[in-house]
Amino acid sequence: MRHDHLLTAKQLSRADIETVLERAREFAGDPAAHAERHPGALLALCFFEPSTRTKMSFETAAKRLGGDVIDMGAVEDSSVKKGESLADTARVVEGYADGIVLRHPSQGAARMASEFVDVPLVNAGDGAGHHPSQTLLDLYTIDENAGLDDLTIGIMGDLKYGRTVHSLAHALTNFDVRQHFVSPESLRLPRSVRYDLHEAGANVREHEDLDAVLPELDVLYVTRIQRERFPDEEEYEAVAGEYRIDAETLERARDDLAVMHPLPRIDEIDPEIDESPNATYFDQAHNGVPVRMALLDLLLEAGGDAA
Amino acid sequence: MTEKDTELRISKIRDGTVIDHVPAGEALHVLAILGIDGSGGEGVSLGMNVPSETMGHKDIVKVEGREMSQAELDVLSLIAPDATVNIVRDYAVAEKTEIEPPEQVAGLLSCPNRHCITNAGEPVETRFDVLDEGVRCAYCETIVREEITDHLAV
Q1: Do B94 and B108 sit in the same domain of this protein?
Q2: CATH number of the domain to which B81 belongs
Q3: Which of A5, A293, A294, B12 could disulfide-link to A121, CB 3.0 to 4.6 Å?
Q4: B23-44, pLDDT tens digit by residue?
Q5: What does A96-156 look like in DSSP terms, one character per residue?
Q6: Domain of life of the organism in this record (chain B) (predicted)?
Q7: Which residue, among A49, A107, A194, would best test binding to B if mutated, counting the most B CBs under 10 Å from its CB?
Q8: Could you tell me the domains of chain A?
């Protein structure tokens, strides 16, 4: 992989993805055994929105590779509060670190910031845009459970604003995958993503009812439908209730269905299935470390880090 | 009324650019895209909603004393894909130009997505990739197909 930055999943070829996953598998065996990879490397964490998993797994990954992190901290405590532009913040932080991980509420923020810096920059979520490092760990998890070719996947929930969905859908076009998108009409995939999937010749269907495809699925990727997307509580409850997964749902699915979720979940997956062999979402979250180790390792190599 | 009559209704120019076959009602947008607001001192003649044999009705824009570059003219393809451009020298047509869609337009449109980083007060110019149908923000990837002129930043 020879990219300066990771901004969207669209820039990833099949070979890029396979390179990351292969290296992630090497690291996953013994994550603590690779501290010689990038000693002294510093990764800047610039999170303009809250994060638990993404931020902590990037921090873990940097430290497992022998490096460390510097953290901008909460927006409330930073110069952003004084009105500093993202462009200026990026240019300043570039001078401190060997790489930048950026999460920002505005779509296109990572692309813009990348135009102001020479160190590798990873988009860790730009509003309702993309979240490509999540996609890499999602692909790793899919590969572990069902394989990435001859795959039938259902992607369900908030497809309009779900950045993990947008990135995953793009990345899956590199493989032999049938993608079924399940959502209420108001939360369908945005036009820009449908356009790209069409351009990529992806095998895509859209549904409002999960039962229309559930029995065929190898993987069901569930995302959170957020309250704030609906005008009132009643409408939200009515819609969200139709896209919840529980033990009864699993009875209508294949025995080996892998249920995934980028987390955090609220109540779209009933905790009663957490211990079932179908539940992969906690493994999925744990995979964030070896996959982000692999990503950082490759980006720092490409960035000319001598280690 | 023939196209010739229409030409005559708008005064001939000695030197400059004539943009013909602009969709009816778009002439002011053409001037906006070309950055012509009269402050440059150019003579500008407009014909709006004039009868046209091929288009029903059309607009014509004539700019005196200024020859537009191909790059300037290509952005017109966003709103007037069938426009024809004549460069006039000493009252005669010296060059006929076909406009072609550019690959990208910069600084011309604002992004309709209010969550786009280009609407967040950052020091960047908007950039839109030109698609077969419509344009697409190079930052947030929003596709605009309808009413592109509503988003003119000029």
Answers
A1: no
A2: 3.30.70.140
A3: A5
A4: 999 999 999 888 888 888 889 9
A5: T-SEEEEEESSBTHHHHHHTT-SS-EEEEEETTS--HHHHHHHHHHHHHHT-SSSEEEEEE
A6: Archaea
A7: A107
A8: 5-130+287-305 (3.40.50.1370), 133-285 (3.40.50.1370)
Report the CATH number that the domain containing residue B123 is assigned in CATH: 2.30.30
pLDDT digit string, tens, across residues A185-224:
999 999 999 999 999 999 999 999 999 999 999 999 999 9
Cβ separation B120–A86 shorter than 8 A? yes
Same domain, B51 and B87: yes
Residue from A5, A49, A112, A197 whose CB has the most chain B CBs within 10 Å, to mutate: A112
Answer whether B139 touches A (CB < 8 Å).
yes
CB atoms within 10 A of CB A11: 14
Say which of A5, A64, A130, A131 is annotated catalytic.
Answer: A131
Phi/psi for A290 (5° steps) reads -60, -35
Residue of B nearest to A111 (CA): B139
Q: What percent of chain A has pLDDT over 70?
A: 97
ipTM at complex level:
0.93
DSSP string, B60-88: EEEEET-PPPHHHHHGGGGT-TT-EEEEE
Q: Which B positions 98-127 lie with beta carbon below 8 A of chain A?
A: 113, 115-124
What pLDDT, in 10s, does the model give residues A243-267?
A: 999 999 999 999 999 999 999 998 8
In this prediction, the residues of chain B whose per-residue pLDDT falls under 70 are 1-9, 154
DSSP letter for A269, please: B
Say whether A54 is catalytic: yes
Same-domain status, B34 and B73: yes
Q: Tell me A245's DSSP state.
A: B
| Full domain range(s) for residue B53 | 3-98
Residues B12 and B83 in one domain: yes
B20 and B37, same structural domain?
yes
Q: Return the amino acid letter for B64.
A: E
**A179-183, A230-234, B56-60: least confidently modelled range:** A230-234
Claim to verify: residue B53 and residue B129 sit in the same structural domain? no
